Amino acid sequence: MNSLSRRRFLKISGSTVAAVAAAGAVGSLVKKAEALDSNSVEGLQKIPTYCDICFWKCGAIAYVQDGKLWKVEGNPLDPLSEGRLCPRGTGGVGAHYDPDRLKAPLIRKTVRGAEEWVEVTWDEAIDYIAQKMLKIKADYGPEAIAFFSHGIGGNFFKHTLKAFGTPNIAAPSFAQCRGPRDVGFRLTFGEDVSSPERTDIRNAQCLVLIGSHLGENMHNTQVQEFAQAVENGATIIVVDPRFSVAAGKAKYYLPIKPGTDLALVLAWMNVLVNENLYDTHYVEQYGFGFEQFAASIQSYTPEWAYPQTGIEPELIRKTAREMARYRPATLVHPGRHVTWNGDDAQRSRGIALLNALLGSWGRKGGFYTPVSMDVPPYPYPAYPKSEKGKVDNPDHKYPFAHETITTGIREATISGKPYPIKGWFVYATNLLHALPNEDETLKAIQNLDLMVVVDVIPSEIAGWADVVLPESVYLERHDDLNVEWFREPFIALRQPAVEAPHEQKPNWWMAKKLAEKLGLGNYYPWKTIEEYFETRLNNAGYSYAELKEKGIIRGKKQPIYFDEGVPAEFPTPSGKIEFYSVQLADAGFDPVPVYKAPPEGPPGSFRLLYGRAPVHSFSRTQSNPILSEMMDENEVWINFDVAARLGLKSGDYVKLKNQDGVISNRIKVKATERIRTDCVYMVHGFGHNSKMLKRPYGKGASDAQLITKYVTDPLMGGTAMNVNFVTIEMEA
Question: Domain check: are 687 and 639 in the same one?
Answer without folding.
Answer: yes
